[in-house]
Automatic annotation (TrEMBL), chain A:
InterPro entries reported in the protein's UniProt record: FA_desaturase_dom, Fatty_acid_desaturase
Transmembrane segment boundaries: 54-76, 219-240
Residue ranges of domain Fatty acid desaturase in the record: 65-338
UniProt entry tagged with the keyword Membrane: yes
Keyword terms, alphabetized: Membrane, Transmembrane, Transmembrane helix
Pfam families, A to Z: FA_desaturase
Record-given protein name: Acyl-CoA desaturase
UniProtKB/TrEMBL annotation, chain B:
Name of the molecule in the record: Ferredoxin reductase
Positions of the FAD-binding FR-type domain: 46-151
Keyword Lyase among record annotations: no
Family annotation (PROSITE patterns): FAD_FR
A Pfam family reported for this protein in Swiss-Prot or TrEMBL: NAD_binding_1
Cofactor(s) essential for the protein: [2Fe-2S] cluster; FAD
Keywords for this protein: 2Fe-2S, FAD, Flavoprotein, Iron, Iron-sulfur, Metal-binding, Oxidoreductase
Gene3D superfamilies membership: 3.10.20.30, Nucleotide-binding domain of ferredoxin-NADP reductase (FNR) module, Translation factors
Domain of life of the organism encoding this protein: Bacteria
Keyword tRNA processing: no
UniProt cross-references to PANTHER family, sorted A to Z: NADH OXIDOREDUCTASE HCR (PTHR47354:SF6)
């Protein structure tokens, strides 16, 4: 993988200033339109969820109803996780001072406990983006996606692990921190640099509680409420969850694991200036291009670069911001990774496959890079 | 109810709460339904009541009265209580507390309540409210709160009001008149000059229907601040009365000292900082502010020469708030601010003074601040 050389301090300073200007500019536009927007998305999500659950029940009239219901519920789950949950929990709407739309209280429709996710995602992943060893979102401790990690035989079938992870993605999200802290399995040795602000017991309880709620909701409560069609609803919910899992996992993999997205070492972030931090965020992320509905369904993670630069600006501004960020990068000759969804995803698959093999199968002279 | 019944009830309600949060992902069903209900009733909130602003009535150059009609399910109030009023300004919810200045009797007859509000100079909300609702609109109000109430019994009362601290007294006096109270009440009302007494004529008319009422309008321009001499001169029997004080904090302090000094027991001295309301703008300007950690019961002064983030201040004082990146990215350090203005070093913006959530790691106090820590 090519590594882009760090630009001069001068360039980085200018770069930092220009990006700060972009941020200030958009910061000053935040207001009523954003509040109205997120409320509208939440309304749509609620309507989709409730009508999806209703329509699914009509499956006994004609199976197409069931299919329609599943798709609606799947969309509702996607909206909840992406455009609403992810962005609200990043604090993009905290300024609204609305307790139901605040990062502190929001809980998403996902097996993962929101607080746990905020700890490892908002903190670790966003601060130490793509730093091997610190950003546990990088490959999720399962996949080898760069030659920073030594090859191991289990990497041979990592494409299958990847498919499994995608199908069960919400459980991956849920289990992530619990796994890293070795709560249930693993050598009973605590992670040395654990920065858990809560007790291990609490972490375990939160995990079990949220997991229990998730299973109860989709596989016990709703099927029971619609008792005569218990299995229609049971499998409908399962299908909707799979739709959501595949979609979210695919979008998220496109954000940091495309061919060109770079990795970093721990030394890279010591005493970083904001400019260097911006620089690292840009090199480690990649964007997807598409129509507006596509951006919304990705929670604007299609603008992963902008999201990483400005994680707490309401995401609906990212496509506009992207134009200016791309221009700034271009001017300073900093690579800006963007492409169509199809193309970017293709490179993700390529990357998962490529690093499943030991390095000598694909290494070209690395020193020259 | 037997103990086992209570226990059963508790388990039952806890189970119900678990199911609610499993199915709706909200603490209660109403919060989940809120966005849908808003399609029919814009602005509806599960945790408060809607109120229509019917009129903004000017009282003086910088004082106005909001006339509100709370929705029918609102639970009413006792004279002297206040409400939290929240209104949406450019997408953000702003919350302020105001004493109700009209009487419960008036509410029973007309369904209306009044809030009398002084515009804070340079304030963010109070001048805005006046303009934004000049031609009506909707706001949200809380249930009535507060313990500053008309005392039971028939012991004579001395009411000491300063500036817009008159509002709870107006409510109490109107109510007493409506109930044909025979109690002896002396109102001493301090204003900064002779043009600034609110409801001047109204109080004088009130004396007709409320024979026990005595009024002393005090002009601070001429008579100065409250003093023991004033009390002796205008209300010679004040030591035998139950005292109620509402106004700016300096005045409350002085009045309490005077009364306590004259031998009135503290059970008979009631007071309320007018508008339990946070002020619109910071008062101190020298840059040394007090940061209070409410749950910890600790308050520390900050040093303007070496500004520190609130996260650092908290940690330097032995608290361990949750934090993560320490650079404003992760929102782990979000904390409820009860009141006060903070400066966000990342966005370069000042917060509102009312309650709100802030990121400790990038916030610097720019007024006295109370934190829920
Ligand atoms: S500690 Fe990360 S935002 Fe404050």
């Amino acid at each position: 993988m090519t590594k882009t050389a760090t630009p001069s301090a001068e360039t980085l300073n200018a770069f930092e200033r220009e990006l700060n200007d972009v941020r200030d500019d958009f910061m000053s536009r935040i207001g009523q339109a954003d509040a109205d927007y997120i409320r509208k998305v939440i309304r749509t999500q609620r309507l989709l969820e409730l009508s999806g659950r209703l329509v699914m029940v009509l499956g006994f009239v004609h199976p197409l109803w069931w299919v329609a219901g599943v798709i609606m519920l799947g969309l509702a789950k996607i909206l909840d996780n992406m455009e609403i949950g992810h962005n609200v929990m990043h604090g993009q709407y905290d300024w609204m001072n609305d307790p139901n739309i605040s990062s502190r209280r929001f809980e998403w429709e996902n097996a993962g406990d929101g607080n746990s996710w905020k700890r490892y995602h908002n903190h670790e992943h966003h601060t130490y983006t793509n730093i091997i060893g610190k950003d546990r979102d990088y490959g999720y401790g399962m996949l080898r996606l760069s030659d920073d990690l030594p090859w191991r035989p289990k990497n041979l079938w990592q494409f299958i692990s990847y498919i499994n992870l995608s199908l069960l993605f919400q459980w991956g999200v849920a289990y992530h921190e619990v796994a890293a802290e070795r709560i249930f399995v693993g050598k009973n040795k605590r992670r040395k640099d654990s920065s858990l602000p809560i007790s291990r017991r609490q972490l375990r309880n939160d995990f079990l509680n949220k997991a229990g709620k998730t299973i109860f909701r989709d596989y016990i409560f709703w099927p029971l409420v619609c008792f005569p069609v218990f299995w229609w609803v049971f499998f409908g919910n399962l299908a909707a969850n799979i739709i959501r899992n595949l979609w979210t996992s695919t979008i998220i993999f496109c954000g940091h694991f495309t061919e060109e997205a770079q990795t970093f070492r721990e030394e890279d972030c010591i005493n970083e200036t904001r400019g260097q931090w911006y620089f690292r965020q840009i090199l480690g992320s990649s964007n997807l291009e598409g129509p507006r509905w596509f951006h919304i369904l990705t929670g604007h993670l299609s603008c992963q670069v902008e999201h990483h630069l400005f994680p707490d600006i309401p995401a609906r501004h990212y496509p506009e911001m992207a134009k200016r960020v791309a221009e700034i990068c271009h001017r300073h000759q900093i690579p800006y990774n963007t492409g169509s969804f199809g193309h970017q995803y293709f490179t993700v698959v390529k990357r998962v496959l490529k690093y499943s093999l030991p390095d000598y199968f694909h290494s070209r002279p690395r020193a020259a890079a | 109810m037997t103990q086992s019944q209570t226990l059963e009830l508790n388990t039952w309600s806890r189970g119900l709460r678990w199911v609610t949060s499993a199915v709706t992902l909200h603490q209660n069903l109403a919060d989940y339904v809120e966005p849908l209900a808003q399609m029919i009733w814009p602005g509806w909130q599960a945790s408060s009541w809607r109120a229509r602003v019917l009129e903004v009535r000017p009282e003086q150059a910088d004082v106005y009265t909001l006339v509100l009609r709370p929705s029918a399910s609102w639970k009413g109030f006792l004279a002297g209580q206040y409400i939290e009023l929240s209104a949406e300004k450019n997408g953000a919810r702003a919350i302020r507390c105001f004493s109700i200045s009209s009487s419960p009797d008036h509410y029973r007859r007309t369904g209306l309540i009044e809030l009398t509000i002084r515009e804070q100079q340079g304030g963010l909300i109070t001048p805005w409210l006046k303009q934004a609702f000049a031609s009506g609109g909707g706001v949200n109000i809380s249930a009535a709160k507060g313990e500053f109430l008309w005392p039971q019994g028939d012991k004579p009362l001395l009411m000491i009001a300063g500036g817009s601290g008159i509002t709870p007294f107006r409510s109490m006096l109107q109510e007493a008149a409506a109930r044909s109270s025979t109690r002896a009440v002396h109102l001493m009302y301090y204003a900064r000059d002779a043009h600034s007494w609110l409801f001047h004529e109204e109080f004088q008319k009130l004396m007709l229907s409320f024979p026990g009422l005595t009024l002393s309008f005090m002009d601070s321009d001429v008579q100065g601040f409250i003093s023991a001499q004033h009390l002796h001169d205008f209300c010679p029997d004040f030591v035998t009365r139950e005292v109620m004080i509402c106004g700016p904090s300096a005045m409350i302090g002085m009045a309490r000292d005077i009364c306590a000094g004259a031998g009135i027991v503290s059970d008979h001295i009631h007071f309320e900082y007018f508008g339990a309301a946070p002020l619109d703008m910071p008062e101190a300007a020298d840059g040394n502010y007090v940061v209070s950690f409410e749950r910890e019961g600790k308050a520390v002064a900050t040093d303007s020469d070496a500004p520190q983030t609130l996260l650092d201040v908290a940690e330097a004082n032995g608290l361990k708030p949750v934090s993560g990146c320490r650079m404003g990215v992760c929102h782990q350090c979000i904390c409820q601010k009860k009141s006060g203005v903070v400066f966000n070093t990342q966005t370069g913006r000042y917060s509102d003074t009312g309650p709100g959530e802030i990121q400790l790691c990038v916030s610097v106090a720019s007024s006295d601040v109370i934190l829920d820590l």
